[in-house]
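quick one, two chains, predict together pls
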Amino acid sequence: MRLTRSAVLVAVLAALAAAGAAVAVWAPWRAATGRPGSSPAVGGAAPAPGLQDRQAFRVQPPTPAQDFVLTDQHGRPFRLSAQKGHPVLLFFGYTHCPDVCPTTLVTFKSVKELLGERARNVRFVFITVDPERDTPERLREHVGYYDPDFLALWGTPEEIDAVRQAYGIVATREQQEGAPGGYWIVHTAASLLVDPQGRLSALYPFGTSAEEIAADLRELLR
Amino acid sequence: MTLTPRYRALRTVVLAAVAAAWAVLLVARLGAGTPHPPVAVEQPWARPGPKGGNSAVYFVLRNQGSAPVKLVAAASEVADEVSIHETVMVGQAMRMQPVQGVSVKPGEAVTFRPGGLHVMLMGLRRALAEGDQFTVSLRFEGYEPLEVRVAVRTMGAGQPGSGMAH
């Protein structure tokens, strides 16, 4: 299967630009910290950036989501287009991630709880951006710990790269002393919603509440 | 038994002297270099995580003293590695950044929360399940370490949707 840059990518990139103003944030941040891996002290009572005032971005109109096939933690193939009839909540992360990815998995778990019985129709999908360390076994243990119903997808580095690029997801390794295995992965922490018709319908920046995501899903499950 | 008034007076003086000496020693000991840091660590919590996995501790750190305090290190027996980190947003991407120290001005508070400052627990030695508790030791520059009891919860201060994100 070959993934092409499509309207999906354009839509996601537009969403990223609108929601995050990536370049504007990147440039001063680079200037302020000098180089990646530098360790400035944090001072004062400034709130941690990012968590508040994060608005979900709805793709209007929803655009067809790029199809892909990866393998789940039980060794079964997962094809996006085969999920039609089910909303799919996608998150790209990795199991060595200590803060953002577990937070998002807990948010997914809260979404599932908020939906009650109807959650059975939703596919909660975690796609690793660290296929070299995240073996299916490790994914099963670590993602399954949050909820055994969550799907954790892996593939070869090439397959993973093709999928995340089709969805405008950034993931770059950053060597750092003290990091598990010597590196962290800087990655897009937004979640994506694919509707039951297989269309990309929303992008949720990190920090979007479970209530907000659950409300969108309830709408799709009606 | 009867005691002479003189002996009674002497006994009182001796007891008073002993008490005074003890008080002086106690004060001297408390004032000797490494007192408790004048901080409140409010609502400490950590997320559940599997054995061998990672987690993070979050709290509100309030400086109740009259001088700045600086959190410089953390330790805990529940994880192989414990360090202070900050998640920094770069556009929509999240970057992990080690932090050398977190300064808090007198009367102010800094919130450690998901997607921001956190005490990172890497390589959990046991699974952390909701309802568990463990101890984390916070070291402030110039003070003796402060032991904090941390509750394992799925939701806490600063968690999206907890209604406590201030």
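The CA atoms of residues 32 and 143 of chain B lie 10 Å apart.
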